[in-house]
Design brief:
This protein has helices spanning 3-12, 67-80, 108-116, 121-124, 171-174, 287-292, 299-306, 351-365, 370-375, 382-391, 431-436; strands spanning 44-54, 57-64, 85-91, 98-104, 163-165, 177-179, 194-196, 223-225, 236-243, 252-257, 263-267, 277-279, 312-314, 323-325, 327-328, 335-337, 345-350, 394-398, 404-408, 412-415, 492-494. The chain has 508 residues and is α+β, with helices and mostly antiparallel strands. It has a domain at 3-118. The strands form 6 sheets. A 7-stranded antiparallel sheet has the order 13-20-14-17-18-19-21. A 4-stranded mixed sheet has the order 1-2-3-4, with helices on one face. The longest helix is centred in the C-terminal third of the chain and has 15 residues, at 351-365. The protein contains 11 helices and 21 strands. The protein is globular and about 80 Å long.
Length: 508
């Protein structure tokens, strides 16, 4: 009797075996019987095929006459097939081939790995069914099968990957949608880079206690993270971890300067992961970088060495069409524009390029040649040169709202898109989560009394013969403008599109 059959006999017919009750006591002395024709009294038949082998191991075919026994045997072998490649099915008595069999792969190697490193079991556990097409190995080498991705991102009903929905085990989970951010740090923040939130939450009240901002109050206890929006620190900085900031929608990254060892929080770009190296060029290019380029600052060469995700650059050094966020308004201020989750601006054009085109066009209209255009500047008046010089100092950026705006070319921005871009698709699922964020309920005007709102009172649910208005009587909706007409921002080239309650026209 082979070693494999002895092991099977020990496991299947021992004292604690669940199959002991499935066999007659009269066959106890001859449990392992040969698979031959006419042996219908045997409840279990084994056949060791010496010619067939899979992965260098013998294949054992098991034939069970009883259907209930066959089902129980399959279930048992899935748990205990650790010593051989086993197949359960029916054996043709004439040809000796196994038909309609299920292959059960051994799990000895996996158990040995788990005994040494039990922490990797969730990643190695197989959560899908697998059945072999044939018991016999193929004569040719098959291509490598795709590796299953464990913990893959879920897909929501909106068709977007990266969102996690929940089974409605509770009413608060029925409509709950959250972005998948498994890369976030799960511990506490760096304590020295936080301050206590004391006195900042006034519930929408001013110093006299009057409510000046409605729908504010309460919220969970938190500490304020001190985020570096200026990025004055030079040198390469490594990202240690990505954290969730309860005070903002975008994520923050804890970075450490490789030269000084100082740590700080910055706004994380979408796609930034621990181990990435970022750098700030706000004070200009370092000397070693300019020396490596031969002392000549070529635009394309500078962009190829500096314009990477997470780096801070002056707007004049960033190529046209690059997405940017955390944009400052001038050369000395901190980043103020495009800081919320998923927002970014795109550089449309640079003033110096537009000025150069306009100057060339002006000289061509006067009939100047190419050589004269390159040397002659006296054709322009002092006012024209001052105008061109001023226009060359700005960069045109298209913001996420669709607004076109001018920025100083010495202002800085971070390359990339603000992290947590799927935040706009998140749903809180219940009113309590809004209260955790410090947001109080919004009561409709028609649900109030007449003394509290112009829409209140009455015997029905309508607002009466009143135009839509705010609680203080100012007209609302219908495109009523409340901003003064003489307060114009001259840096805005084109305002963001406003539909004023109407549908926007689709772009052609």
């Amino acid at each position: 009797m082979s070693k494999t059959l002895k092991i099977l006999e020990e496991h299947m017919f021992g004292r604690r075996s669940i199959f002991k009750k499935l066999f007659d006591k009269q066959n106890a002395g001859n449990r392992l019987l040969p698979a031959r024709s006419g042996d219908n009294d045997a409840r279990l038949q084994l056949r060791l095929d010496a010619g067939a082998s899979i992965n260098g191991k013998k294949t054992v075919y098991l034939q069970v006459n009883s259907q209930a026994t066959n089902k129980a045997l399959r279930k048992w072998l899935k748990k205990n097939s650790t010593h051989a490649n086993l197949a359960v099915g029916t054996i043709d008595e004439n040809t000796g081939k196994a038909d309609d069999a299920t292959m059960l792969q051994p799990r000895t190697a996996l158990r040995r790995i788990y005994s040494q490193t039990p922490s990797i079991l969730p990643a190695l556990r197989r959560s899908y069914a697998q059945a072999a097409d044939s018991l016999r190995p193929s004569s040719h080498s098959s291509p490598a099968a795709p590796v299953p991705t464990f913990g893959a991102q879920e897909q929501s009903t909106t068709g977007l990957t990266g969102l996690r929905r929940y089974k409605p085990r509770t009413p608060g989970q029925r409509h709950l949608i959250r972005p998948i951010n498994d890369h976030l740090w799960r511990g506490r923040p760096l304590y020295k880079l936080t301050i206590a939130k004391k006195g900042q939450s006034r519930g929408g009240r001013n110093h006299t206690g009057k409510v000046v901002v409605r729908h504010r109050g309460g919220g969970a206890k938190r500490r304020i993270r001190l985020v570096d929006f200026d990025r004055w620190d030079e040198g390469p900085q490594v990202v240690e971890r990505i954290e969730h900031d309860p005070g903002r929608t975008a994520h923050i990254a804890l970075i450490r300067n490789l030269e000084s060892g100082e740590r700080s929080y910055i706004l994380a770009a979408d796609g930034t992961r621990p181990g990435d190296v970022v750098q700030s060029y706000r004070k200009g290019l370092p000397k070693d970088l300019t020396d490596s380029m031969g002392g000549q600052l070529d635009r394309g060469l500078v962009a190829s060495k500096t314009a990477y995700r997470g780096n801070c650059l002056q707007l004049g050094m960033i190529p046209v069409g690059t997405p940017i966020f955390n944009i400052s308004l001038d050369k000395s201020s901190a980043g103020k524009v495009c800081r919320s989750a998923g927002t970014y601006g795109t550089i449309v054009s640079k003033g110096e390029d537009e000025v150069q085109k306009e100057m060339v066009k002006f000289l061509e209209d006067q009939g100047r040649s190419r050589q004269e255009q390159a040397l002659d500047i006296t054709a322009f008046t002092a006012d024209q040169l001052a105008k061109y010089e001023k226009a060359a100092g700005y960069v045109t950026i298209r913001l996420s709202s669709g607004e076109l705006r001018l920025f100083d070319k010495e202002a800085v921005a971070t390359i990339g898109v603000a992290s947590n871009a799927l935040h706009q698709y998140a749903q809180l699922g219940k009113a309590g989560r809004s209260r955790w964020l410090g947001i109080r309920p919004t009561v409709r005007g028609v649900a109030m009394n007449a003394c509290d709102h112009p829409h209140g009172g009455g015997r029905g649910k309508g607002k009466g013969n009143n135009h839509p208005s705010s609680p203080w009587g100012k007209p609302a909706k219908s495109g009523y403008k409340t901003r003064p007409k003489n307060k114009i921002n001259r840096m805005v080239v084109q305002e963001r599109p406003r539909n004023q309650g109407k549908r926007r026209k689709r772009a052609a």
